[in-house]
Amino acid sequence: MNESCTVESGRVCVEVSGLRKSFGTSEILKGIDFGIRCGEIFVIMGPSGSGKSVLLKHLIGLERPTAGSVRIDGHEIDSPELLSKYRIAMVFQSGALLSSLSVGENVGLYLREHRIHPPAEINRIVREKLAIVGLAGSEEKMPTELSGGMKKRVAIARALVMDPQLILYDEPTSELDPLISVTIGQEIVKMRERTHATSIVVTHDRDLGFGIADRIALISGGRILTLGTPDEVRACDNPEVRTFLNASYQPPEEADRT
Predict the structure, then answer these.
(1) What's the CA gap between 42 and 209, in Å, rounded?
(2) What are φ and ψ of residue 198, in 5° steps?
(3) pLDDT of the chain along its 258 residues, tens only?
């Protein structure tokens, strides 16, 4: 990649080169190549079964590639140097809150486990991050008391406490109604503005992807079909891209006539 980021910049760059992944005789990723610039919101979009989830697992080091590599600022994703120098946060599809802990305890868990601050300072940071995502005063609530959208915002607040340089979001608007989905998209953009972190969003939600992305990689069948700005992706004449972008519900009688 042409540009170089440093730890001090608060942002990191990501480079995926020749990434392939097979499970037995089934090849899921078929030679993925792309670079993610420092500080951008990079959206990986595609239909179900396109390879998005497998790609995401490689980006956070949960899967090892059959071939190719994932590097963050030049470091292999599983290198000890990477793990010691960079702060990487993940916002899971389900929120992944611990049901036995309160909202405040969930948000402050990373700080407490790593003993980064004294308890009073951790409590202050937790209140501050919850207020940022519109959940001020919810520290004592339990996850079972929260709606799906609130759980996603708690997960974002939990990521914020790390002051991350790289944030990954897995289907952040899944199972949410359209209004809450818009709110989550706004939170992702605001978080980038506050932290200057590099953001990777994996989604099948076209409205979210085109609404927040600096650039989009549209994948299908384990390959990238097109990569560019939202306008460039919209202008792509690849038939598979057009099918994905133009898909909409048709009543059965109308579908039968087409």
Answers:
(1) 9
(2) -75, 135
(3) 444 454 444 568 999 999 999 999 999 999 999 999 999 999 999 888 888 989 998 998 889 999 999 999 888 887 877 767 888 888 877 667 888 999 999 998 888 887 778 889 999 999 988 888 788 889 999 999 988 878 888 888 888 888 888 999 988 888 778 887 888 888 889 888 888 889 999 998 899 999 999 999 999 999 999 999 999 999 999 999 999 888 765 666 655 555
Tokens of 34: 């792309």
* CA–CA dist 110, 91 (Å, integer): 14
Could you give the CA distance from residue 148 to residue 231 in angstroms, rounded to a whole number? 31
User: Which DSSP helix (H) or strand (E) runs through 30?
Assistant: strand 26-36
- Half-sphere exposure at residue 228, Cβ-oriented, CA atoms within 13 angstroms: 10
Angstrom CA distances, 156 to 4, 74, 176, stand at: 27, 27, 15
Name 33's Cβ contacts closer than 8 Å, sequence gap at least 6. 16, 17, 18, 19, 224
213: how many CB neighbours lie within 10 A of its CB?
Answer: 24
**CA-based end-to-end distance of the chain:** 46
Domains and CATH numbers, the chain: 10-249 (3.40.50.300)
Q: Are strands 26-36 and 198-203 parallel, antiparallel or unpaired?
A: unpaired
